[in-house]
Amino acid sequence: DEKDIVFFYINKAINIVAENGIIRGNGFSSESNVAVSSAFRITEAQNVEILNMKISNMNHDGLYIGYDYSDPNEAQMITKNISVRNCEIYGVGRNGISVVSGDNVKIHNCLIRDISTYQPKSCIDIEPESISTTKTLNINNISIKNFTNKEKRCG
Q: What is the pTM of this model?
């Protein structure tokens, strides 16, 4: 089985800032059992800022914002007030950024490039899950480069 490795798992946390960093995974392969899934997984957190980060070579999503599936019967705190600004995300195996649940999520001034591996592979995937909701999503000034996808979708 593939192991689920995340560099930063921000769960049930409040007032977190991550800035000015470089996170480089170990590549992506469906054969690997040690591939890094995501740079950030943000679930049930509030007031989180991801600023000026370079994220690359993740097996799945560069950033995942939303729902925690570890216990679907547990009451979930709403993931809210999440800001991703001035980030560069490239060479990831699935989506640049996935937003599956949240309130007041902002994605601004980011470059997302070289997304071309396996499904669903979107630059920004807005996919509210049936057990959660996404409210007040603000996306602005996003640059997309070198995107290849036979379905020709980018968000």
A: 0.85
- For residues 145 and 69, give the distance between their C-alpha atoms in angstroms, rounded to a whole number: 32
pLDDT digit string, tens, across residues 90-147? 988 888 999 988 999 999 999 998 886 666 678 888 887 756 677 889 999 999 887 6
Is 40:7 a contact under the CB 8 Å cutoff? Answer: yes
Query: Is there a contact between 42 and 106 (Cβ–Cβ < 8 Å)?
Result: no
Cα–Cα dist 54/152, whole Å? 25
Beta carbons within 8 Å of 16's beta carbon, 6+ residues apart? 10, 45, 47, 48, 49
Give the burial class of 8: count Cβ atoms within 10 A of its Cβ; 0-12 exposed, 13-18 middle, 19 or more buried.
middle
Return the higher-pLDDT residue of 102 and 84. 84
Q: 150: which DSSP letter?
A: T
**Edge-to-edge, what's the strand order for the sheet holding 111-113?**
22-24, 54-56, 88-90, 111-113, 143-145
> 102 with 135: CB under 8 angstroms?
yes
